[in-house]
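Table S2 (text version). Query chain:
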Amino acid sequence: MTTLLQPSTGYRVTLRSRLLIGRSRRCDLHLSHPSVSAEHAVIWWESNQWWIRDLGSRNGTTIDGRPIRGMQSTPLTTTAELRFGCYPLPWGLESNTPPTPCAVNVETHAIIRAEGSILALPDEEAPTAVIYGSEVASQWLLEQGDDAREVADLEVVSIGGQLWRLHLPQHLEPTVERSADSAPHLAELSLHFEVSADEEHVTLTATTASDEHPLGFGSRAHHYTLLTLARARIDDAALPPASQGWVYQDVLLAMLRLDRARLNLNVYRARRQFAMMHIQNANGLIERRESTRQLRLGVGKLQIRKAGSDSLAPEPSAEVHRATPASPSPGEADSRTPTPACSSARKDGSGHSLPSEFSIIHPTI
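Corresponding structure-token output:
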């Protein structure tokens, strides 16, 4: 988190994606001084750098005593001294790190900051909307309910009857070749699931071809959702990679015996867990096809192992029969692991999607 510091007083202002400076109370940094214009200057993050521009103020903006000419965009460094008009105290940039995505409640001014590059609203315990960056399209996406759409910096969105102003870096960072000590990219990972005999516990680890030590994710309730999607992807191993593992959301809900809110919470928690482990492109862990409401696991290198066994689980072979999944009692979906009998209800033996009244039983691993 980067701040703008007033060295003589120690006063700090957190830098969001864009900071408007001026005498007007509409500004993010309000400087009550007669030489400061109503909207004097703006600081923003772009192309892996902080920038400043004078907005045509009467008394100008200087960097290390040199005026910014016209409306010129000027890069900022941590050693630069900023002055606005004749305001007596200088300012400086404390670090050149990117801003943390956040949302500000329009009415209460409460601030929600992203955790691990994922912004959950109205809070991370019970999010009804999730905002994250799409590495493929270099855009920010808002997932709310069953829908996903692009959102932009400073856009105001309605979440749960409240208005939130989004502060999002204007450009996602390009993918770079990682060094030996940097965090791995999602595409490099192999996921290893260890499943208890009763399928109540799913332990997840991840490895890469270049790293000796696996990443341990422990055992979490949302890992069963990942396991179910992993089984679907293994089941499609004969298909082209782009076609593997897609599951209709309604079918997945029946398989897991969850409601949509709980499924979305599991997706958020899984992505967030990977992001907190500094996995690059953690948001791609679960992929969505919005036009067909399908989901799949975004990792193709998978292993499933029964706890206590040295052998990998066999690829499932499908046996089709009619079954209507039992509806959970109120509150039950939030508290229990889905039964293994529903773990692969998705397709018929030819790979075609089934109506919701069909399910498939795979051999228990």
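Notes on Table S2: Residues 260-276 form the longest helix (17 residues). The mean pLDDT is 82.
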